[in-house]
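ok so heres the complex, two chains, lmk if somethin looks off
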Amino acid sequence: MFGPAKFSFGHVFAIAAPWLLGCLLLPNHLRAQETLANEAPKVSQVGATGDRIDPRSWMPETSVLYAEIAPAGLWLDHPMRGWLTSTDAFKTIWRSPEVLKARGGIFVAELAIGMKLEDIARELSEGGAYIVIDKRTDGMALLTKTSSAAWLKKYLDKLLEVARSDAKSKGQPDPVKSAEYRGVQGYQFQNVIFGSIDEWLLVTNRSPLAQAIIDRQQDASIPNLLDARWLDGFQGINASGESGSTTRVIAVQTDLEQIRQLDRGNDLFKDQAKDFGAELILGGVLSVLRHAPSASGSIEFRENGVTGELSAPTDPAWFGKSREHFVGPNQSGRAPAPLLVANSIGTLSAYRNLSEMWLRAGDLFDQNVNDQLAQADNTLTTLFSGKDFGTDILGAIEPEVQVIAVPQTFADGALSPSVKLPSFALVARLKKPEVMQKELKRTFQSFLGFLNVVGAMEGQPQIDQNMDLVNGQPLFWGEYVPDSERKYENGLPIQFNFSPAIAFVGDHVVLASHVALARQLAEKPWTSSSAASTSSDANSFLNIDFQALRQVLESNENALITQNMLEKGHSKEEATKEVGMLMSILSLLKEGSLRLSFDDRTKLELRIDAMEP
Amino acid sequence: MPIDAKTTLAEIDPAFAWQKWSPADQEPWDEQRVRLLYRRGAFGAGPKEIARGLKEGPEQCIATLLGEESQSTELARQVEVFEKESGAIAAAVRAGGDIDRLAAWWLHRMLHSPQPTLEKMTLFWHGHFATGADKVVDSELMYEQNRWLRQHALGDFRAMVHGISKDAAMLLYLDSATNRKAHPNENYARELMELFCLGEGNYTEKDVQELARCFTGWEIRRKLFRFNEYQHDEGVKTLLGRSEIESGESAIDVVLAQEAMPYFVVGKLVKFFVMDEPQASRQFLEPLVKTFIASDYSIRHVVHQILLSNLMLSLWSVGRKVRSPVEYALEIVRSMEATANLDRLAKMLRPLGQALFYPPNVKGWDGGRAWINSSTLIGRSNFVVDLLGDTNTRFAGGSLENWIRAQGIDSKEAWMEWLTKSLVAVPIPDIERDALQKGMAGRTNANGWTAPLISLSQNPRIHLS
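and the predicted structre for the whole thing:
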């Protein structure tokens, strides 16, 4: 069986753990009564199985990715599981038709195999699971250390018996092919090749990879993954997590050098963003991806949340001058501390020297993007009364900027937009406030006038301009005026989500999509949010309050249902359920953050906190 | 005198052609006729609708398509529920102002409306009173026009013409938002007679000039129609032989009262429902014109008579029309009870030559053979590949394979038979059937069930209705 087999590399999912094979089988085998569970030994403690085989010693040195996954027991016994299954949101999802259908399939498979899926998962991965992607064989393999060789043999025998008798009952030929290689019995079912080596289960989609693994298992002198330099410093699932209070459940490391060679056409490795937005978000990361020899990632469970991290070794020389706008001089660029704003959905704070980025566009983008930017530069320079947009306008603000989003509230019964958008504010410090305040005020007023002229030409609502003093500093804003001749039976148009405003707070400027947010920021002294400690030393930091986000989505539930119906062709009932499920999932989450930092390693850290039990 | 496929139009007695068809031993009410009615009067049908149509019989089947029971039965409830749902979608789409999404909303109506002929007629009027969003730009105005067309699609033709003459989208599209007495705008006046009511040769250039004078003072301001009495030409006008016309409205009445009007309108309806070619003579249209006039210009009465006629249900009309892109796409979707990403579906119609809300010019889509060229033929085949490849496409809520098996189909050959019966209006010669089977065998789709449909989409006969 370990002879040649042609499989697409895209079928990597097909090698998911073979217990899924059970799910493919039909109810003809409900009569299978012999239970493997009764014969399985008790689950032993993780890592205490004695032989201490490092699975990397079996894997080929030509591999480009290696991952370790913690035993299923660790996932299933996490304290969050008990809390999660007790929540109303989970119960709603658990009883949804889609999940019920899946549960039905699992139940049938469990009956056929005679063992609970959960128990199979525990037994199969008692000593952990290990994944490798190999460049030479273009294959992917999964090795799991099961509870015992005897249990694994029984399990595989049962699985094969069920598959064969299922085919027989349908009058089909034997669906399982088998062969032996160096004393190891292997099987192929559809696109999946699998076999056992003592208590280890091997699953792969390429027979040459299976052979390579068996070769190394039997001959330690053959070069293997332990010889690969790109895997130096790998922190596996047994490495202690953050402050020792977390459990690492997935650890992965990859050979970026090889992946760059394999995927030469990919823009991610070209060190050049395709557009302005991509450069703004990813610019510095692209420099790292282009040069770093390896990258690693991990996922860790905390008592009430999940943490993820992607990182890569970093050399300051990789950024050069061209990405100084992103990382700052000598990587010193730091995001400002996120402001505390009541009921905010989230804050994005970042170091971005926008002026430098605008002026360096010729080095950063291709000709097409540069042509578009040149056109935009002309328009913006006109709009800003002849001032050069890159130098005079963007150059007038410091690189530490943040964007805040808050949900909008509309009085009950009052006319409100049919699609309710959150309001946003950009907060930045002015380099020369005494000069720039007047310039920006005048430009802002010109901009509103421009919107009125364009709006009048297109029959759009007009903007009324207003001004107020807040704490002695000016606040300018515009307000859309409803057309007295229109009835707005379906709610106000989308423009009525906006009341563009500019406020000056000390030496900062606040540019907001709605005056209420600008006024909120101008009225009270600023304090940093609780996320400030997490964001310190970060280049970019995003934090999200999932409940505020849920509030925004709930106020647009009808629009979301409609969108679902048009995008997926769902009926109203299906769309309502799917949107309801999204809300249920969000109701389980409290807050999340994404942190990007540059030091001797570039790190992208994700943290999601669940609601309090 | 029976009508068979080889009978020429000139040989057919007009009175018999438009008389009510009745089933007979030689011409039973069968699946082929139900499918024909659903192709011409709707956008195709799935197995359940075909079974219902068979059970209903011809008259009830047509009444169902036209929604004629909506005053008193279960259909009234279905219409109410559907209109509420569609209204909610429209409200959300209008809030975004995206015209492409408006097309998706309309496709949702075409696929799910319990009154499918109403949607088909709305599409007909969209091509008749062609107005393009590329020029109007404003989605709200396009929506309002679409609503007006639907409201009158099966109603009084005269009321529809009066309304469309003051429609903001129409007047903006024809550069007629301003019409001053010093410079009467002739665009709308010309199209009203040439394209909307009478056809070429039934008016003179002088009539165009006089009608334009009647419309002076008609303006669009802030997306609304208004009459500016100060810009209205109060002078004496003579239009189509009539003088002393007081207003634009009375001028429209003069146009509508022309003898050519019912022949022009009925002729277009016959072309839309029955045959692309040849063009029916006045004499041939006479029975329908009489119905049109007698019913006080009710479009519903004419459509009803066409659908239930000997000419339609004798099967003479089979294969005499080329499926429009909308018909082609939706008949495939509906026949397999599929649901799909409607935003994407709306975009996929563009390369086929029929983007909703974007007719090519004021004449609308030419239709007939013009639907087919080397580019749209490839596009039609690619449409099937894209539709089947989209993960959002489901069949009665599940996979294609499950749906096929639920129909009792257990082999690729049987599946091909079902497809040819359901989607191909005309017989397929044996030699082409062999080619289809061979083409199917050459495919290497993941599960093989999509291959027959893709193979069939490359056979030219699938484009005939």
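quick notes: The longest helix of chain B spans residues 74-96. thats all i got rn
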